[in-house]
Design brief:
- It contains eleven helices and 17 strands.
- With 348 residues, it is of the alpha+beta class.
- The chain folds into three domains: 85 residues, Rossmann fold (3-Layer(aba) Sandwich); 61 residues, ATP-grasp fold, A domain (Dna Ligase, domain 1, 2-Layer Sandwich), CATH 3.30.1490; 165 residues, ATP-grasp fold, B domain (D-amino Acid Aminotransferase, Chain A, domain 1, 2-Layer Sandwich), CATH 3.30.470.20.
- The strands form three sheets. Strands 9, 10, 11, 12, 13, 14, 15, 16 and 17 form a nine-stranded antiparallel beta sheet that branches. Strands 3-2-1-4 form a four-stranded parallel beta sheet, with helices on both faces. A four-stranded antiparallel beta sheet has the order 5-8-6-7, sandwiched between helices.
- Strand 13 and strand 14 form a beta hairpin.
- The longest helix is centred in the middle third of the chain and has 17 residues.
- The radius of gyration is 20 Å and the shape is globular.
- It starts with a strand and ends with a strand.
- Bound molecules: adenosine-5'-triphosphate and magnesium ion (MG) (2 copies).
- One magnesium ion binds next to strand 14.
Length: 348
């Protein structure tokens, strides 16, 4: 059988490993951290840093194909890995999604609508952008943000000084605040021969920048659900993408605005584990391994809820609830804001 190499040892890497294992693959995890969620289930954990060239080479040589669970892989590491084994999704997908400015420019180029945005290298640029975009708006670091980190909201131009200080010198973009009625996401996959399959859009609720729940079906008109799925297909094709991608959207009257894309399996796709015959993790493994995609049609309605920090106290109750499927990540230490697991409540 063949072996799949996964960069990153968090919960996404763990669930990818489980899916790969079910299909008869072995997995090797590359992760600098020690006791990580994926290391408990992968066949091998190569613990090394991303600037250890020898370790990167050994990793690539020990696998047949390379994928990843996070988008912030250093370019220097990718340069080494791609000489040895194929990387899916490809470099272009990573390049586009690693940087919010590149990402928004790319999406706009496809004719999709994004929030008004401006490149903010310095204070003068921010003052100029506040004249055009105005407030309310959000200043976001171009790179490395997740779970709402690296963001500052501006209620009025007087917030400019503090917002810029919050960026800690990192290059940023200013985004106009979108007055959305709700947020949805589409998780979609593309195979090596160009087959595309999208899961039903899920409705997302965030709390403090962190995803709280995803509900399917989303309470969005069928027409907009179709728009959302077609947008995902368009992006996948434009990038000649192989694997699963997450597309986050804001719903406004009659129109969808793209928030961001993630070149990987996505937290808002966890509901597929108990709502579909083939879930996002298996779909991703199928794609990167060169298999045909599986059946991602939704057979059940699901509410996925993240278990964050002290939510773990509810696990004994949830374990007694016959409607709930628990997915816990095996993280040793509970910390506020840390994603410890999730629960899929099958509602019909
Ligand atoms: P993720 O963990 O999804 O990668 P992130 O740190 O990249 O999150 P965003 O998705 O950019 O952050 O923003 C987090 C949340 O903040 C969004 O899901 C949305 O609720 C809100 N938000 C972000 N940008 C805007 C905007 N321009 N207008 C309105 N709300 C926004
Ligand atoms: Mg993001
Ligand atoms: Mg997001």
């Amino acid at each position: 059988g063949s072996t799949i190499g996964i960069l990153g040892g968090g919960q996404l890497g763990r669930m990818l490993s489980v899916a790969a294992s079910r299909l008869g693959f072995k997995t090797v995890i590359f992760e600098p951290g020690g006791d990580c969620p994926a290391s408990h289930v992968a066949n091998y954990h190569l613990q090394a840093s991303y600037d250890d060239e020898d370790a990167l080479k050994r990793f690539a040589e020990s696998v047949d194909v390379i994928t990843y669970e996070f988008e912030n892989i250093p370019t220097s590491a990718l340069d080494i890995l791609e000489q040895i084994k194929p990387i899916h999704p490809n470099r272009e997908a990573l390049r586009v999604s690693q940087d919010r400015l590149t990402e928004k420019t790319f999406l706009q180029g496809l004719g999709l609508t994004v929030a008004p945005f401006a490149d903010i290298p310095d204070r003068a640029a921010l003052d100029a952008a506040l004249d055009t975009i105005g407030t309310p708006s959000i200043l976001k670091t171009r790179r490395f943000g997740y779970d709402g980190k690296g963001q500052a909201r501006l209620k009025s131009p007087e917030d400019a000084e503090q917002a810029l200080a919050d960026m800690k010198g990192a290059p940023a973009v200013l985004e106009g605040f979108v007055d959305f009625s709700l947020e949805i996401s589409v998780i979609a996959a593309r195979s090596q021969d160009g087959q595309v399959s999208a899961f039903d859009p899920g409705e997302n609720v965030h709390e403090g920048g962190i995803l709280r729940t995803t509900t399917v079906p989303a309470k969005v008109p069928a027409r907009l659900q179709t728009d959302a799925v077609l947008m995902a297909g368009q992006i996948l094709n434009a990038l000649d993408y192989v694997g699963v991608m997450g597309l986050e959207l804001f719903v406004t009257p009659g129109k969808l605005i793209v928030n961001e894309i993630a070149p990987r399996v996505h937290n808002s796709g966890h509901w597929t584990q108990n709502g579909c015959t083939v879930d996002q993790f298996e779909q991703h493994i199928r794609a990167v391994a060169g298999w045909p995609l599986g059946n991602g049609a939704r057979h059940s309605d699901v509410v996925m809820e993240n278990l964050i920090g002290d939510d773990m106290d509810r696990v004994p109750d949830l374990a007694r609830d016959g409607a709930c499927a628990l997915h816990l990540y095996g993280k040793a230490e509970v910390k506020p804001g840390r994603k410890m697991g999730h629960v899929n409540r099958v509602t019909s």
